[in-house]
Design goal:
Layout (H helix, E strand, L loop, with lengths): L6 H9 L8 E5 L3 H11 L4 E5 L8 H22 L4 E3 L5 H5 L13 H20 L4 E4 L9 H12 L6 E2 L9 H12 L10 H13 L4
Parallel strand pairs: 1-2, 1-4, 2-3, 4-5
């Protein structure tokens, strides 16, 4: 059995090297709630820019709602903590994005289809980071209960080998009560809390779960 790596320790060891410097970091973000706690950690050590690459999200109205909630979350974080974070929004093209994922339609949630989806979004964001001179790249997705931090960081390691000028920043934002801290911020800011990951397959899975577990 392979021992799990504590990526939070790796993150803390990496930022301890910076001294007074603040390297430029491009952060892939999937939504506002998942971004809250990671930003309070990262902005202490980095000049952070967010890249909202999420053409997986369905329908388009949901994509727009999550994008706008992220903008609102950034305004609240700046108001509360003083961290100003730039936001880059690439074009949304769900049908093109899903071409690689539809052959895996029958895969279960968190299976091969989902892993490919994570990698596609991280790859798009990482390529932007490399092309625009960022020192580091990472994603907020390690904070999610539904996503394996081990798997997410393995994807990051794989992508780093393809982008030699931008270093991957290992993380596990679930550690040190990251989920609870993020939840408290979401509730404090009144953010929309989406109940499915994003694509139509995850939406269908959520709807099936709700039908099987009706609320009284």
């Amino acid at each position: 059995m392979i021992d799990k790596i504590n990526y939070q320790i790796l993150a803390e060891e990496e930022v301890a090297k910076f001294g007074d410097q603040k390297p430029k970091l491009l952060l892939h973000a999937c939504c506002g709630p998942c971004s809250c706690y990671p930003l309070t950690f990262l902005c202490r050590y980095f000049d952070v820019t967010i890249y909202y690459a999420n053409s997986n999200i369905y329908p388009s109205e949901e994509y727009t709602r999550r994008r706008d909630e992220l903008k609102f979350a950034l305004s609240k974080i700046e108001e509360e903590f003083g961290f100003h974070v730039e936001l880059i929004i690439p074009p949304y093209d769900h049908e093109k994005y899903m071409e690689d994922l539809r052959p895996l339609a029958d895969e279960p949630e968190r299976g091969a289809r989902c892993l490919l989806c994570y990698e596609k979004r991280m790859e798009e964001s990482y390529a932007y980071a490399e092309a625009h001179g960022f020192d580091y790249f990472t994603t907020v997705m390690t904070i999610s209960r539904q996503k394996s931090s081990q798997a997410m960081n393995e994807i990051g390691k794989k992508l780093e080998a393809k982008h030699p000028h931008t270093k991957y920043f290992y993380s596990d934002f679930k550690k040190k009560d990251g989920i609870l801290k993020g939840k408290a911020m979401r509730e404090r800011y009144g953010l929309y809390n989406q109940l499915y990951c994003g694509c139509e397959y995850s939406l269908a899975s959520r709807e099936a779960y709700d039908r099987a577990h009706p609320k009284n």
